[in-house]
Amino acid sequence: MRRYWPLLVSCLVLVPFGVAAAVPELLSDASPIAIDPVNALLPPGTRHWFGTDQLGRDLFTRVVHGARPSLLIGAGATAAAVVAGGLLGLAAALGGRAADQVVMRVADVLMSLPQLLVALVVIAVLGAGTTNLVLAIAIAFTPGYARVVRAEALVVRGSGYVESAKGLGLRRSVLIVRHILPNAVGPLLVLATVGFGTALIAGSGLGFLGFGTQPPAPEWGAMLAEGRDFLETAWWLGVFPGAAITVTVIAVNVLGRAARGRFAGGKP
Amino acid sequence: MRTLLKRLVAGLAVLYGAASLAFLSLHLIPGDPVAILLGPATTASPEVRRQISAELGFDRPLLTQYLGHLGRLASGDLGSSYQLQRPVGWLIADQLGPTVQLAVAAIVVALALALISAITTAGRHPAARALASAWELTAVSLPSYWLGVLLLTAFSFHLRLFPIIGGDGPAALVLPAVTLALPIAGVLAQVLREGLESALAQPFALTARARGLSQTAVRLRHALRHAAGSLATLAGWLVGTLLGGAVLVETVFGRPGLGALTLQAVQNRDMPVVMGVVLVSALTFVVISALVDLLYLAIDPRLRGAVVA
């Protein structure tokens, strides 16, 4: 049981974040965007747990409402990257030499660049905005997943049970979907868990740089950027949105480590 | 020799790929590059647009443009900024200094933290290792932009120990370097600690102990050399993280540099500058990877014979 307590704690920590993302009204019934200049820049207290921002909006409410866009950007980008990387990795491993060469050489080039720079290039081409931001992070993360899936698929392809399934005369598509894919999924899920944390940091980072959700909508990274101008008088604006990101990422990384122990070999 | 040659070809392939990627994204931009160049509030006549288009070669066939693009890059010409009307090479050279300073300072801080953490905790009491594991995990999970905001609030605004925005000299470098270094230190410390632990479990560590070396001497003189090998494989990742992190850290602290230049270029969709940064970044990656391969030979003498043979 002792081995499981970090896992348990991180699951418990993630529950309120999940609730905040799903039904933010449950945690705070105030409006995240209604302006109240009289109560601007109030420090944290019993009425405003996290204080108020420069426009008098309750920071706790904004952090709660910021969960959905922030987590969705990270989850969306991770999901897109896992699917695209999975398909490309399978194509590289099973689609013949030419496909392998093309996919892996492009992956080499993208992986020689910083992920954030790849994402920024995509944003420069497509323009800012939440959808483009998700796409940008997904493209930056896809080569990593493609590489892992390719390696896993190659290992599985050479294993005895795939040979025997082939010997039974199974169709190629059945072979891939029923026998090769399920065995490559474990390490991919481990990677995706840790990858979600990284995607969340990257997404909020791009939000911080001003390429994502536009004000007044709350998003953790964008909130930090707004609060940056008031740090001298209002430390809380710089603390709570970032703490939300960090606590989520730590909890997710603990989950990822536990999962890595379960499926050996999925080392990021 | 053959491995080195192979590495060289692979490096060139990456550079060629990055150059092609640059060309591709320049032409993938939805809409007319001339319109982007002129900005949204322009009243330029179609003749002026055609003239600009001809000057920049946008009216020639794509293949001609592509070959011209590769040729110019090969001769070291990165093109000109749309927005700032200056050669991209100059702009990057101008901003390289502050970013290199920041990156080097961050590497030094990160390595120091990682070495101290790994040497003191590897293979020690479970509580020490749990503590090390916890700080590594926290450091890895910290978004650099938040860490920067926290340090800025605490040390610049409240304690007034460091300058608030920009500034030069060593005092202005401390907080940005620590900000950039801490998440990296978390990764390095973990890899180094695991490397040390596996080295200390090997027979040679026991032999060295039996020869009368102290526990610390075994760590510093024997195990560390082994663990350093696993660090070397992270060099490529490190370059990328430093460059990517610089964009955020330079924004938080209002520092000039390559990151600030990149951000400005992306905001203005100044593609030649963005592509110049991409190419410089790919070149840095290739050069550093090659240097680390050589360094690897110095660390691990067993590989030298393998290369000659």
UniProtKB/TrEMBL annotation, chain A:
Bilayer topology reads: Multi-pass membrane protein
GO CC terms: plasma membrane
Q: Which GO terms describe its biological process?
A: transmembrane transport
Task: Fetch the Gene3D superfamilies from UniProt.
Answer: MetI-like
Residues spanning the signal sequence: 1-21
Subcellular localization is given as: Cell membrane
Q: Which UniProt keywords apply?
A: Cell membrane, Membrane, Signal, Transmembrane, Transmembrane helix, Transport
Do you know which Pfam families this protein is assigned to? BPD_transp_1
Q: Which PROSITE patterns match?
A: ABC_TM1 (PS50928)
Q: Transmembrane ranges?
A: 71-94, 188-213, 233-255
What's the superkingdom here? Bacteria
ABC transmembrane type-1 domain location: 67-256
Q: Which family does it belong to?
A: Belongs to the binding-protein-dependent transport system permease family.
Protein name per its UniProtKB record:
Peptide/nickel transport system permease protein
Which organism's genome codes for this protein? Nonomuraea endophytica
UniProtKB/TrEMBL annotation, chain B:
The record's annotation in SUPFAM superfamilies points to: MetI-like (SSF161098)
Chain ranges of the ABC transmembrane type-1 domain: 96-296
User: In the UniProt record, does the keyword Aminoacyl-tRNA synthetase occur?
Assistant: no
Question: Is Nuclease given among the entry's keywords?
Answer: no
Residues annotated as transmembrane? 100-122, 134-159, 171-192, 231-253, 273-299
The record ties this protein, via PROSITE patterns, to: ABC_TM1
- Output the superkingdom of the source species: Bacteria
- Membrane topology recorded in Swiss-Prot or TrEMBL: Multi-pass membrane protein
Coiled coil feature spans: none
Q: What would be one Gene Ontology cellular-component term for the protein? A: plasma membrane
- Cellular location(s): Cell membrane
Kindly report the protein's main subcellular placement as a broad class. Answer: membrane
Q: Name one GO molecular function term.
A: dipeptide transmembrane transporter activity
Keyword vocabulary terms for this entry: Cell membrane, Membrane, Transmembrane, Transmembrane helix, Transport
Q: Which InterPro entries match?
A: BPD_transp_1_N (IPR045621), MetI-like (IPR000515), MetI-like_sf (IPR035906)
Query: Which Pfam families would you find in this protein's record?
Result: BPD_transp_1 (PF00528), BPD_transp_1_N (PF19300)
Which protein family is named in the record? Belongs to the binding-protein-dependent transport system permease family.
Q: What protein name does the entry list?
A: Peptide/nickel transport system permease protein
Tell me which species this is from. Nonomuraea endophytica
